[in-house]
């Protein structure tokens, strides 16, 4: 791999003011932010990354300043043998600051977005699709599911997504048993028995509720139950839930670091492992997690709910890892998804086409995105 000498790192924040807020059990997204990271090297090559920034409302601008003021100075005018080398350098250099500032999450997210851009840059320089650059054969397509179905009439949006080519769907739950179960019944009535169906409680239940809901939801034949408990709930609570649940448990978007993922993969509680490439690790951290999960007999399904660059990075991560996992695609209207990943890959019969171009195979349309830019 040719050395990388970073000469410029440019973060940009965009916001799309949604008409229908995206609701979760812990909060509501009243607009859709995206933090795009552009990295340029000494040869003029460019790579694109994206930093997770959905919450809180000011999260995108704050993380953009972390990228610009804290992460970038540690990379500029230095040479690295690979993106992996740069990720390790940044992670080590910012460990104490993460403790001192009380912000290990935002700093890890800033590093992840830069790592994503460095891998894209390196693959573009090599003239290879990113998943091929990571050592995998390039598949024609990867399976996808429509995510983020709100609790208000989810069957209508699901029907629209089915018409667009989706064959699996994930419902937001945690809004009361009656409502959650009625929504599941409505989805099954519209989608039929063959559609894949998952639910995500976003850490919204206590143990008793999670046990009760897992039993009541079992007749709907769910592929997985995601984050039913708080991630930091006692291990015994997770064990008791897993012992009684008829549906596989899923999680990982709120884990951070090799140790936490090692423990989750070695344990028998989570059967679906879901790291978020823009929240921790980038490609450097998440690809080993994916391969370790598959080797342990788990299902690997990368988490993503943001703009188009992170989505395509998740696609290449899934393609590089292999397995039978699904790519998460937000079902809610958001032009930042398509404009940040142009041309947006086709979806048909439950699968998304893998771009054949170098790197991510797509690039942001900065001119079209300009109307949504809020920082700098």
Task: Describe, in plain words, how this protein is organized in 3D.
- This protein is an alpha/beta fold.
- The longest helix has 23 residues, at 104-126.
- The strands form three sheets. Strands 7, 8, 9, 10, 11, 12, 13, 14, 15 and 16 form a ten-stranded mixed β-sheet that branches. Strands 1, 4, 5, 6 and 17 form a five-stranded antiparallel β-sheet that branches.
- 41% of the residues lie in helices and 20% in strands.
- A hairpin with a 4-residue loop joins strand 2 (22-23) and strand 3.
| Rounded average pLDDT | 97
What is the CATH fold-level name of the largest domain? TIM Barrel
CATH architecture of the largest domain: Alpha-Beta Barrel
Superfamily at the CATH H level of the largest domain?
Enolase-like C-terminal domain
CATH class of the largest domain: Alpha Beta
Oligomer: single chain
Largest sheet: 10 strands, mixed
Instruction: Indicate how many domains the architecture comprises.
Output: 2
Helical content band: 40-55%
Furnish the topology, listing elements before pairings.
Layout: E1 4-16, E2 22-23, E3 28-29, E4 32-41, E5 46-51, H1 59-75, E6 79-80, H2 83-93, H3 95-101, H4 104-126, H5 130-133, E7 141-149, H6 154-164, E8 168-172, H7 177-191, E9 196-200, H8 207-217, E10 225-226, H9 235-244, E11 249-251, H10 258-266, E12 270-273, H11 282-295, E13 299-300, H12 308-321, E14 327-330, H13 335-339, E15 347-348, E16 351-353, H14 366-369, E17 373-375
Parallel strand pairs: 7-8, 7-14, 8-9, 9-10, 10-11, 11-12, 12-13
Antiparallel strand pairs: 1-4, 1-6, 1-17, 2-3, 4-5, 7-16, 15-16
């Amino acid at each position: 791999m040719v050395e990388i000498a970073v000469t410029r790192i440019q973060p940009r924040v965009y916001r799309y003011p949604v008409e229908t807020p995206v609701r979760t059990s812990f909060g509501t997204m009243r607009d859709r932010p995206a933090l795009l990271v552009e990295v340029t090297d000494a040869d003029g090559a460019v790579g694109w990354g994206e930093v997770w920034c959905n919450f809180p409302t000011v999260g995108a601008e704050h993380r953009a300043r972390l990228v610009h003021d804290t992460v970038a100075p540690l990379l500029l005018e230095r040479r690295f043998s690979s993106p992996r080398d740069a990720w390790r350098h940044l992670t080590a250099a910012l460990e104490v600051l993460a403790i001192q500032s009380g912000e290990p999450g935002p700093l890890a997210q800033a590093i992840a977005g830069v790592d994503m851009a460095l891998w894209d840059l390196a693959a573009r320089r090599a003239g290879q699709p990113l998943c091929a650059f990571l050592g995998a054969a390039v598949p024609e397509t990867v399976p996808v599911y429509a995510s983020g179905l709100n609790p208000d009439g989810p069957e209508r949006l699901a029907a629209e997504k089915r018409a667009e080519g989706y064959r699996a769907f994930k419902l937001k739950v945690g809004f009361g048993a009656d409502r959650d179960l009625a929504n599941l019944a409505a989805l099954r009535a519209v989608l039929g028995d063959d559609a894949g169906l998952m639910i995500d409680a976003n850490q919204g239940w206590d143990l008793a509720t999670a046990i009760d809901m897992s039993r009541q939801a079992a007749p709907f034949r769910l592929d997985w139950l995601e984050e039913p408990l708080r991630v930091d709930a006692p291990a015994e609570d997770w064990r008791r839930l897993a012992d009684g649940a008829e549906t596989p448990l899923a999680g990982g978007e709120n884990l951070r670091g090799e140790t936490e993922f090692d423990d989750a993969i070695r344990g028998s509680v989570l059967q679906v492992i879901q790291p978020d490439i823009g929240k921790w690790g980038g490609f450097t951290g998440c690809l080993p997690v994916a391969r370790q999960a598959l080797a342990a007999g788990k299902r690997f399904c990368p988490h993503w709910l943001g703009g188009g660059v992170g989505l395509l990075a998740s696609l290449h991560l899934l393609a590089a890892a292999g397995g039978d996992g699904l790519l998460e695609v937000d079902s809610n209207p958001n032009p930042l998804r398509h404009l940040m990943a142009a041309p947006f890959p086709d979806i048909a019969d439950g699968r998304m086409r893998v771009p054949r171009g170098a790197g991510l195979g797509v690039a942001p349309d900065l001119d079209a995105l300009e109307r949504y830019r809020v920082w700098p």
